[in-house]
Amino acid sequence: MRYDVAKHNAERVIALPDAEIAARYLSGETLAELAVSYGVSRPTLAKALDREGVQRRAARQRKGRLSGEANPAWNGGRRRRKDGYWLVWTPEGERLEHRMVMERHLGRKLRDDEIVHHRDEDKGNNDPSNLELMSQTDHARLHSPAMHAARYGHGR
Fold first, then answer.
1. What's the pTM value of the predicted model, to 2 decimals?
2. Chain centroid, CA 150 distance in Å
3. What is the separation of C-alpha 54 from the centre of its chain, rounded to a whole number of angstroms?
4. What per-residue confidence (pLDDT) applies to 154?
5. Which domain holds residue 28?
6. What is the DSSP string of 79-132?
7. How many Cβ atoms sit within 10 Å of the Cβ of residue 139?
8. Does any domain span residue 67?
């Protein structure tokens, strides 16, 4: 006999008023406030919002005496990722700096199929003269010989 997880977990399912949660969220309440109100976790509420098709807001900057520019560790809303790329805080959330520099240079938003290539291969050098706009195909073609050599030890 096979154990039916759905049958035995049915009593553990929390029925949430998804439409009510969505309405309260859209009126300005945060996930943290709603989580306290309904006695559930924020990820559980996020799923309820997803079921209602509600897109979540970007996180607001925290208020406080040492928040933002008042914090001694503030570096202009910019931080370096482990892989070497710079991230910049924007009202829409964190974005890759090299993509923002290229958008500013072009005067338009980048399409999803466009890649910004660093000519000197230094991911931290976001000078516009070091950046080049490419298609994903061209970018893969450019890097494939080096990736092949690194993977298979050729050309050393």
1. 0.53
2. 29
3. 17
4. 66
5. 15-51
6. EE-TTS-EEEEETTEEEEHHHHHHHHHHTSPPPTTEEEEETTS-TT---GGGEE
7. 16
8. no
